[in-house]
Amino acid sequence: NDTPSIGLPASGTGDIASFTALNNTGAPIVAIISVTPTIGPCTGIPQDLQITVNPVPIIDPISNVATGTGVVVGPIALNSNTGGGELYTWSGGVDVGLSDGSGTEIPSFTTTNSGTTTISRVITVNAEKDGCTGPDRSFNITVFPIPGAVAGDLNKCSGDFTSVLITGTVAGTTFDWVIGSVSGTVTGQLPGSGNLISQQLVSTDGGVVEYIVTPTANGVSGPPISVFVSVFATPVGNPLGEAAVCSGTTLNITPSSNVPGATFFWTGSNGSGGTGNITDTPINTTTTSTTVVYT
Hints:
- The chain has strands at residues 29-35, 38-39, 42-43, 47-53, 65-68, 72-73, 76-77, 87-91, 101-103, 105-106, 109-110, 119-129, 132-133, 137-144, 149-150, 154-157, 164-165, 167-168, 174-187, 192-193, 196-197, 202-217, 220-221, 225-232, 265-267, 273-275.
- With 295 residues, the chain is mainly β.
- A hairpin with a 2-residue loop joins strand 22 (202-217) and strand 23.
- It is rod-shaped and about 165 Å long.
- The mean pLDDT is 92.
């Protein structure tokens, strides 16, 4: 045997016993076995036997994949020590969007994760060439979910601080916001980040501010949402003036303010009170004039 590295001794007698073929290279090894027959003192003509030992394909390391859902990944190149022509078979990635299959490379696929938690799967790849199958090679595919943001609209009076609390559908979500549409005369709105929008908004005539909030988790951005904060101007009552009436006269004074549509609550220094128009009937049981102040 001119190549004992295949696992067969360099020489021997009798039948060639079974042996485990070896090839630790990436290319076929050809060994020439010269077999010489003998009987008694006579030696026959040597015959050559050729044994070819093909290598087992060893797959090169494959990089792990970590990305968000809905991302196109690949194709993923597959290489082995045997230099090409291998047939690869892979499995284990159905839950993250990679179908089981075979070929010379893993084709492009779109990652999937419809839940709110991270999915990680172990992909097993096997290579075969010239009838020889090598050991499995594994790598991980991790798919992060798309985060969502949840927040409610608010009504606030001018000069109040907003208190928009933002929550996420995925643990660890962070939030950034920008200012969208603004109607009316509102000031104090600013872009920012965090899970609480707390800003003092001021408006003399009322208005609405739109905050556009974008959630991010594990490097994946989710769809933005709009949060609307309505700011109402602070109503100030207009002066009502003074009037002189006789005791027992029913009043009907219509209040007004700087803000259209304002409602009114009033009290009188005589203990009266009500809502809307001042409809008190003041009584004076004395012999001198008295004054009732309505607030």
